[in-house]
């Protein structure tokens, strides 16, 4: 048969099947980008164990009491190539109210609602992508011929040509926090009012959420914070501040970068500017710098600089900072080794910076030590065991490229797998906040769309069976 005739008679390429496991901000951003990018027929299955599609942990369960975003409305958008989309959405919701201003810090729950709405719109408006939403937990994955097979706890198995792992902080089990109660668990108002004192383990933004919520629930006792470096969060400027910064990669070493940033900060301060502008400018370059670092430099940064960087990078909305500043907690520099129940209160064993131990009793203890990507779940562990993904060398998450495409033990011979958001923390460092996640999801969808177009072209040219290895 002549080749042209063979091609005409060949069955059309079946749709590409894409799975997204986890649908917080990372999974939702990926789905929105896929719905907009894929140019050929695509079946998309989005699974989330919680049954909520869009908000994820930070903008869902951790946002139930009006907790504020630490990013300005103007810098947030779930839609690639549409900066300012969140502000536009807010303006539509608030019908001209002042609190929709681009410079404002909105409640995280509001952002969660916006993310869910943009997700639904993108999926229902897509010409090429047919979507199934699945409320279930993925528990395992394995190669299946040219595809990947994902096993779900309740709904059996599904096979995919490409997989997005967007499981972030995992399926939430608050009771697992080691050093006190979960800061985002609903508060018992009577207990809050009756408590004489409270301990907050960790001194970052979660501590502020927790302390402010406790006080708003009626707590009037003494608040103590134990933090490794004795630092409390600092404020954002009332309006966005920025400065020009050289390409930090050109400075070649961590010490040279540090010297340059400090000098710039001094110059800005002398000129009457805000140090926050320097932090904002550095933040834009963190992925570039981190990926250019040697492993030794990354480790050195984590050992010596990370807490100071985190302190200037994660800042409070000015109004929240003013609330904290009006009644600051006692701050102890050190760490909490253990918390144990003693009658009606709890005893914390605190080690100070000189290594001295002290036992102190509190009515309430909150574990505000932060959230790490959940890589010890059955699903992620199964991906690791099958060689489909691998941990990054620092074991902070999974080894990924900037698009989130995983580096696997078997190289790139299998179907494409992307691990998005906080899961790439060790590889990219600055990848946990919404703007970076949305940019990464767009890059992933773009890469996938190119691979899929190439696969379709090959199928048309050869009439070869369509399969996932056409992606490789
Ligand atoms: C308390 C807190 C406050 C933050 N505040 C801000 C902020 O103000 N501004 C900002 O830019 N960033 C903020 N961040 C960071 C950022 O928003 C998060 O990193 C981001 O939302 C992570 O989203 P995610 O989808 O990757 O993970 P998650 O939000 O953890 O979502 C993962 C989803 O996957 C599901 N899931 C997990 N495992 C499975 C499985 N095996 N099968 C099926 N489903 C599964 C879960 O149910 C969940 O819905 C904050 C983070 C935290 C923790």
Automatic annotation (TrEMBL):
Residues 20-169 form the FAD-dependent urate hydroxylase HpyO/Asp monooxygenase CreE-like FAD/NAD(P)-binding domain. InterPro entries: FAD/NAD-bd_sf (IPR036188), HpyO/CreE_NAD-binding (IPR038732), L-asp_N-monooxygenase_NS-form (IPR052189). It comes from Lutibaculum baratangense AMV1. This is FAD-dependent urate hydroxylase HpyO/Asp monooxygenase CreE-like FAD/NAD(P)-binding domain-containing protein. SUPFAM superfamilies: FAD/NAD(P)-binding domain.
